[in-house]
Amino acid sequence: MKPKDQNKMEAIYRAMLGLVRQRGLAGITMQQVAREAKMATGTLYIYFKNKEALVVALTDKCVQHVASNLFRNYSADAPFKAGFATIWMNIVRHRIEFFNESLFIEQSFHSPFVSDETKLALKKNFDPLLLLLQRGKDEKIIKDVDSFWMLAFIIGGINEIARRVNYFNRKVSQQVLETNFQLCWDGIKAA
Amino acid sequence: MKPKDQNKMEAIYRAMLGLVRQRGLAGITMQQVAREAKMATGTLYIYFKNKEALVVALTDKCVQHVASNLFRNYSADAPFKAGFATIWMNIVRHRIEFFNESLFIEQSFHSPFVSDETKLALKKNFDPLLLLLQRGKDEKIIKDVDSFWMLAFIIGGINEIARRVNYFNRKVSQQVLETNFQLCWDGIKAA
DNA sequence: CTTTTAGATGAATAAAAATTCATCTAAATT
DNA sequence: AATTTAGATGAATTTTTATTCATCTAAAAG
After folding, report:
1. Touching check for B112 and chain A: CB below 8 Å?
2. pLDDT higher than threshold 80 for residue A1
3. Does the CB of A64 fall within 7 Å of any strand C atom?
4. What pLDDT, on the 0 to 100 scale, is given for residue B57?
5. Is the CB of residue A30 inside 7 Å of nucleic acid strand C?
6. B2 DSSP assignment
7. Spatial contact of A101 and A17, defined as CB atoms under 8 Å apart
8. What does pTM read for this prediction?
9. Helix (H, G, I), strand (E, B) or coil at B142
10. Number of helices and strands (H, E) in chain B?
């Protein structure tokens, strides 16, 4: 027998992400996906039961991918600021490099397909960061502001950086990232 | 002759915004819009040539609506911090109250329909704020950071507040808004 | 009050998109 | 090398969705 080609699956995912970025989830047809992934439409149905299953699978994959990156090189033992900086950089780099994935997650969350569990899973990805913020507050290093809103402040800035890098085709040097981190840090640090 | 019913147009817009919020642009059909707006499908085509025209018209309307709110009560003569606070509050309130519109703009920008002019118009909405930021830098009140990134920092935080208010059904008191403003302000103010 | 004109309706039609399937490979097994 | 099994194809089919249109109002004009 002929085995399933893992490359095909990847090609389908890549095609989806590219198309969602340029056309939106609303603009995607299975024909387009097949063409973009250089295969016959029927082949899509060997790898995925139907369009819904494809969207769901890709959403899960993207959410997991986020999870695998957020806390890379982070140790809960590190000093607060160093640990926070590590996570901040991880998130911003991931959002920039895999912007299409972030966009896809956002759009699929507003599609008729995605389950509440998946949405919850994404939210839970940030739990270790919430823990760290609590520690920072306990240690009086950062302001005593509800973590829910502080996280909004942190993540919001990061998201918008990624958006602008991609929409306006801007380059971000390490220098620019550090400047942006400084804005965030000065915002949260205790007075 | 019977005149066009302005209420119908509004009903169509309202239906669209509601549906995009819960289903995404990908999940919308003209049948659904008609049902939600309590009219026959054919009636939609009296007010809009086709689906594309409807999306385009609503996008323009939303973009204009943003423009009409951002600088309400703002005077370029006000002291820097007061002026900035006015604009910040205007934006955050608008994003919270008309979250569905923001969402619709975002999604329609990724549809196959919306023109570059419309996208540019949205961007231009922020020009007076860019001007103010430049003034703040000249007066050494805020950090000397590229306005492009400073705006990302400011807008990003605001967007995420609105998102969380709506997705997690959180109430925001004036108190919460002021706390959030403080984070932003401490971020941008000169050291 | 009658006529005219354009809005409103929703079933019928057309267009677009998802999904299937008969047929054709290519890889693995014997 | 022959056989078997499952992947790959894309035209054909089914399903869904957009759009039209014959018919029916309701408002304005005369």
Report:
1. yes
2. no
3. no
4. 97
5. yes
6. P
7. yes
8. 0.95
9. strand
10. 10, 0
Who among A103, A149, A187 is closest to B176 (CB)? A149
* Alpha carbon distance A183, A179 (integer Å): 7
Contact of A89 with A181, CB cutoff 8 Å: yes
Give the one of B148, B152, B180 whose C-beta lies nearest to A153's C-beta. B180
- Cβ neighbours of residue A39 under 8 Å, at least 6 residues apart? A8, A11, A12
Could you please report the per-residue DSSP string of B37-89? TTS-HHHHHHH-SSHHHHHHHHHHHHHHHHHHHHTTT--TTS-HHHHHHHHHH
Residues in chain B: 191
Phi, psi of B189 (to 5 degrees): -65, 150
Tens of pLDDT, residue by residue over B143-171, are: 999 999 999 999 999 999 999 999 999 99
Q: Tokens 């961007």 label which residue? A: B123
State the sign of the Cα–Cα–Cα–Cα dihedral B175, B176, B181, B183.
positive
Evaluate whether A132 touches A77 at the Cβ level (below 8 Å): no
Give dist(CA B10, CA B134) in Å, integer.
39
Measure the CA–CA gap between B77 and A168, rounded to whole angstroms.
31
Kindly tell me if the per-residue pLDDT of B4 is higher than 90. Answer: no
CA gap B100, B103 in Å, rounded: 5
